Predict the 3D structure of the following.
Amino acid sequence: MILREIIENCKISNSINTNNVLNVINISGITYNSRQVKKDWIFVAIHGEKFDGHNFIQDAIQKGAVAIVHEKQLDKEQINLFTASGNKPDSIVFIHVENTRKELACMSNNFYGRPSEKLNLIGITGTNGKTTITYILKSILEAWQRKVGLIGTIQYMIGDNIIPAIHTTPESPEFQHLLKDMFDAGCTDVISEVSSHALAQYRVDGAKFKVAVFTNLTRDHLDFHKTMENYFYAKRRLFVELLSSDGTAIINIDDIFGKQLYSELLPVRWLTSTLNILTFGLQPGSDITASKINFSYNGMNFLLQINNETIQIDTSLIGMFNVYNIMAAAGAAKSMNVPLNIIAEGIKNTKTVPGRFEKVDIGQDFLCIIDYAHTEDALERLIITARELLNFNAPEGRLITKKGSIITVFGCGGDRDRGKRPAMGRAATSLSDFVVITSDNPRTEDPLQIIDDIEKGTVNKNYIVEPDREKAIKHAINMAKTGDIILIAGKGHEDYQEIEGVKKHFSDKEIARQAIEKRLNKSTE
């Protein structure tokens, strides 16, 4: 693709050495990572969280970059220095822009042929529920005989082809490349989790979203956003700037930030008459709501109402938070004209999402749950859901005859928002019967300092501290009695632990299974 086509409609401040070459230079790739540069590529110098791409311009040129996009002003002397490796200065195009992240998204969208315009692109954003909603919606659309792509925290999926996920929402070149690959593979619809980081960093700019879902907003990522207002406005971008003018916004109006978003979008709907809005929640007046909700150990059922239509929902998913997730997914599907019976079928077909209220069950007389809950709100919802299950029967006739206890194992991540640590300590110790405070991903922080921050919020003395996460999980499992529920929170699907900046293999699910097996074997000796 020629360079002029790639920078079309992008905001260029000025450029050097572009005389008559924009129509001549053929570009083979685009990247922000100098290590990925190959012959005839564009290198876009962005300010990353750890590195400044402007410091790697010369490396990119040496590897074959023929165009450099930069936001720092460069004079002729600097350009001569960058190109002193043997390339002639007039053979490299230097393009200055105000914001390289924004223009990286614009150029990536152009380079990959604006793939979102050929797809039904659905974006899911919010603090909690994004991953589960994508899986539910994927199941619904597949029940409707659609081929679906998925971009999310756990993995990227092109139909049944699975690609490991590096970020919840990848950087713009990878995001647009995935969309193109999904279209080329025959996908009609793509469901993407859209993180607040991605929205703040313009990773999905240029993409046209046909549907956007807002789940909720609770404290998280304030190490990055600094304030809840900034966090909300990052999420808001999906609806105000990136949603197609004739698209549909699906909004949880039981959430205070959802109500705010809804009130801000109403004038847009009145002015354009093309934007559609569907609300969901349990409060009166919601377009999508649920009633007659029944929980059991194996799942739940309820009546789902969308406007004037009602249908029975049966699902293996458990908990009020999953009622909300189902309402959100059903709303997105309904906005795409999926029949209600197909929506119900897709929900019923949805299997347990890895690391989201995932059971580890090998015949023990207590329940063990792995969950990704890593915010105060998510941890509260997890424990409350467990409390609702305490009096139900276990599967396969294993009757739980006593009211059990809730034992919660959790920690908090290092190098992240410290303010949520005491809040999570308060939630765990106030709602659980017993808590084991441990490490999550300490990263470069001292695990004991993280635990000390958690302890500042504890309200009961119903906890112990065990910094070694493996030992903490084993302790909880060995102390469990018949009918108890163990909640292992924070890491969910993750299969690593990061300590002192080094990742090593670690799976909560594997450790829990091994500990339960060992306990069962001992009991039969």
About this structure: The two ends are 70 Å apart (CA to CA). Residues 144 and 338 are 7 Å apart (CA to CA).
